[in-house]
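Comment thread on ticket #2218

A.B. wrote:
> Attaching the input chain for the structure job we discussed in standup.
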Amino acid sequence: MAAAFTALRVLLGLFFLLTGAAKLSEQLSADLHRHMKSQFVRFAEVFPLKEFGFVPEPGRYLEVVGWVEVVAGLLLAFGPQLLQEISNFVLSVVMIGAIYTLLVLREPLAMCAPATLCLGLLLLLNIRGYAPPAKPKFE
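C.D. wrote:
> Ran it. Output below, let me know if you need it in another format.
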């Protein structure tokens, strides 16, 4: 079972690495990058911290989310256990934000499915995917 969770963790990390890279560069898909740029204009309008007066510039918002996904995806896939757990938490927050944004924009529920699936897999890894801490040996 540990091998299945390791494979899930690596694949999920690589998925986030790829989606983050698509947000940062036109090299993977110019059409997808342009689409993301236009979507983040809408996403910035309903940014959760808008209530507190913070409205991000859409291009910068796209870059920040892209870099967070790239770095956290790499750490989730290949980092030490502590950094895997931290990146899992960070990516979970990003997915909750994505779901919130899509719901506020009244997108069809099918648009929420990828973020919801990713969040579910991240939570599964968080609950079951890491080895229990070693018990100290008392002599």
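A.B. wrote:
> Thanks. Noting for the ticket: The chain has five helices and no strands.
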